[in-house]
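Example record

The entry below shows one chain as it appears in the dataset: sequence first, then structure tokens.
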Amino acid sequence: MQWVKIFSSVDDALARIKPGVTQLLVVHQKRICLARLNDEFFAVADKCTHNGESLCKGKINYLGEVVCPWHGYRFQLKTGRESAERSADLETFPIKQDETGFYIGL
């Protein structure tokens, strides 16, 4: 696994990614949907497995799921699992934070 630094510090990540909002990242030609719930971060593939829409255009619900804006498919941010098992699960990416920065694992 390769760790890619995406923010200079945890404080930088907290300031730039607001709670309950998604952010599109393109890291090594991969589209990644970065989301923050409270002070916890999650990273999943940005492409809905049902019809290919960008999940960064969707919303995060109270259950910790990102909801696809086209047909409402819901994916758990923690596991990538499609909540109703109607479509394939999303690829997830680990997040690592330390005193040297904020990283995503590819």
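Notes for this example: The chain has a mean pLDDT of 95. The CA atoms of residues 74 and 84 lie 8 Å apart.
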